[in-house]
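Lab channel / #folding
Pinned by the channel admin:
"Please post every new chain as: sequence first, then the structure tokens as a reply. Keep commentary short and put observations after the output so the thread stays searchable."

First post following the new format, from NK:
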Amino acid sequence: MSICPWCKGKTPKAFDVCPLCGKNPHEHPSIAAGGFGSFEAFDDFDEPGGDLDVSSSTEPLASHDGPDVFGGGSFDEEPAPLKLEIDVVSPMRISSRRPVSSQQSPSSPAAPLPAQTNYRDPNQVEEPQDGPTFDAYEIAVLADFGPTPEKLWQFPSYAMRVTTRSRELKRRLQIARRSVDEAEQGRDARLADLAERLRPELDASHDFDGVLDTLRQIEETAASRNDALSARNEELGQKVSVVDREIEGHRKQESESKARVDVAAKSLDAARGEVDRATAAFKRAEIELRNAQELARAAAGPQARTAPPEHAAKLQSLAQILEERRAAVQAPKALFDEAKRVWNDADSAYKAVQRQIAELQKQRRGIEQSYAREIGMRSQGVQQAQSEMHAALVAIGAQLIEMNAPIVPRELRQAFFQSQDVLSSRMLEAERLNHAIVSADSAAVKKGWMVIVGGTLVGLLLLIALIAVFGRSEPEPLYGMNSVFEARVFRRLS
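Reply from TO:
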């Protein structure tokens, strides 16, 4: 940690200009009079919890006193070869030092390069660590908790105000932390794009072999995993295509069988209509013959054994018609039976094709399930390798920016610093909200809720006591008194 002699603020490392107050530490009278050569003399190496890296330089990263590592520097000294190393620990955690942006405002917090701490839990409120210093009055205005109470009756309203405002501030903090994550991803995307665009220059120079070794290894791993995944997907596709062709062939049979079922159903309906009409005609003839027999029996009398002559001829004619219609029913019935048999055969064939299609579909699902686990794991491996490639590109871009490499175009450098400034401002807003949330007097809040709970309990006890006292039944009327009022008057007089 370094301590600024002007504002006494703490910074992760020494800078030419304090990022907190914007003043130059070298100009402080204590440094000028004491003969200190630089701001590094005020590094607080014994500060507990400090993130000191004794192996790294404390000089500003945007400038170098010796020969430029990318070929600049003194003309009479041979430029030293570039020595950059990438430490890819995880897809989203890459060791890197923070570059100093000339565009960052001195009051904004330093947004670290890809090794920054991510806001993983949007609902978590952390205790403020060593970082940017905020004006206490600005934090009080943002929190809007009101003054800390001094009287007992002021504690409940303060506790309720803090609880209500904290809920709103936590919601805003959650949004702010999501915006920080988005800004960090945008910053990393800028670095990865920078490394991708400069890849031809890096590949062409042997000075960058050390930088690209890790990336090339990751690319080889990603290509190997991708080839294995493609091979398994191709094998799965071939097996599934065989089953799909069989299903397609059975689909044609299914449509043909369905057409035959429809034709057979129409024929069956037509035959059923013919049978119904013939049966209806037969039943009408049977009814007419029965009615004629009743009339002939009534005309002949109860003792007659034969029908009168005028009815006998009619009965004979109706009996002949009934026999003819009985015979006429047999042909449509035979056609109906044949049509029903044809329909049953067609329907059985159609259902058999459907069962075959269902079996093939089940077989297809089995093939997919047998490959699903392996393909899923291989897909995860490919995604992991791609994440590592992205992380390696981000690390390369970060080191190129940090080393102030002349091969980095100005527009790409400016785009990175713009994204860095956006990240810094969003981190600053998140820190402000976090400071505002924790600025409440927790002891006063706790005391306020204790007063609220205690007052509520006392109120309930008083209510119960009043109900017990005034809720009792009145005494019976005395001496024939029929009203409660008279009973009370009597008690007072007595």
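NK: Residues 32-111, 115-120, 477-481 have pLDDT under 50 and may be disordered.
TO: also worth noting, The chain has four domains: 1-54, 91-198+409-438, 214-391, 455-493.
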